[in-house]
Amino acid sequence: MSEQPNWVRVEREFDAPIETVWSMWVDPDMFKKWYGPMGMSVPTAEMNVVVGGIRKVCMEMTSPERTMSMWFTGVYKEVNRPSRLVYTESMCDADGTIISPQSMGMPEGHPDITEVIVELSETDGKTRVTMVHVGVVAGTAGDGGWNQAIDKLADLLGKPE
Q1: CATH, residue 53
Q2: For residue 136, is it within any domain?
């Protein structure tokens, strides 16, 4: 039996300059346009993109019956424009108070704090993004959500020819 890695890794190349791709990760208005799985919107993205700065993001899915909201908060650990961004991520309530992942239906053992590492590199006007989310198991819904979000980012930025 092989165990899945305790991290999700997504690598993509975009037909966009590195500064444009960087902005998609650090500008709240741009981030809201692509973040989250298909069918989810991002009504709130508060980002103080400095080392020690706080981020708070809300993803929502609306159905005829109700609107489901998921809030996340974290702290920026590294901000090296335009090539590297590292931040923590935890589930929280609308006020930013961290809550247990299990209270939001996540399986037992899902960590309270995870870490997202984003690395960007540019070659010939195209930007390669490598995103690793440590603490989210490969092959889970979190993995699928990241891939869908990066697909949405690709739709905004364009794919290399």
Answers
A1: 3.30.530.20
A2: yes
In order of 43, 48, 69, the CA distances from 40 in angstroms are 10, 23, 9
Q: Can you list the positions of beta strands (E) in 2-53?
A: 7-14, 41-47
**Residue 127 domain-assigned (yes or no):** yes
Total of domains in the chain: 1
Q: Are 80 and 74 spatial neighbours (Cβ–Cβ below 8 Å)?
A: no
Token representation of residue 161: 């020819």
**151 within domain boundaries:** yes
What does the chain come to in residues?
161
Q: What is the model's pTM?
A: 0.92
The β-bridge partners of 77 are none
Query: Quick check: 76 and 51 in contact, CB under 8 A?
Result: yes
> What pLDDT band is residue 106 in, cutting at 50, 70 and 90?
confident
DSSP secondary structure, 51-62, as one string: TT-EEEEEEEEE
Question: DSSP 3-state assignment of 115?
Answer: strand
